Predict the structure.
Amino acid sequence: MSGHSKWANIKRRKGAVDAKRGKIFTKIIKEIMVAARLGGGDINGNSRLRSAVMAAKDENMPKDNIERAIKKGTGDLDGVSYEEIVYEGYGPGGVAVMVECMTDNRVRTVADVRHFFSKSGGNLGESNCVSWMFDKKGSIVIDSAAISEDNLMEIAIEAGAEDVVTEDNTFQVLTAPDDFTAVCEALEAKGVKHVEAGITMIPKNVAEVNDEKVASQLMKLIENLEDNDDVQKVHANFDIPDAIMEAIS
């Protein structure tokens, strides 16, 4: 997978998307709480919190929910304390997988993650076993119909972006993590709206999966992980050709 999640582009029935909205809200609220706890509740002085609030607004989360999550994070309201942890392992076909989690019960979370890896034919590995295969970047995905590549490149690079990548019907603006907020603000100021934006892990090399069985196992692993309440983000270094994707969908 390059940049944003390949599997996120799979068309799903509206009912399935709506059913997952509650889980998306839960994950974003956790991120807001942790960001506020670590860096304070001032969005202007806390880039991580600003990024989390941006994600909440992208999902049309009510303002009250956002404000309540910030107050829980800063301790102004009672709330659960979450621990951040990253699990790493190998999926089917030896694909590298990183799983970012926030949990109030590490024993439960690692058991669930290990189960998903084993069930798919993969295995959970030691810390740092695959992280060296990824670079941490800011990622801003924009519909290619919204702006020309040349105009986007000019705005993004001037604001501090590292690169603009064309993928399917989108442009992906890549930044250093510290420059992510500034680039987002520069694009917003020019009226350029994003499809999705956040800090992510970009694989240095991407393996193309041409075996239907392996592809199906990988997709199931990712879906199981993303459906888990303790899992915030999943990163992997594979891509599946459209023909294979259609065959397993």
Observations:
- The two ends are 17 Å apart (CA to CA).
- The chain has eight helices and ten strands.
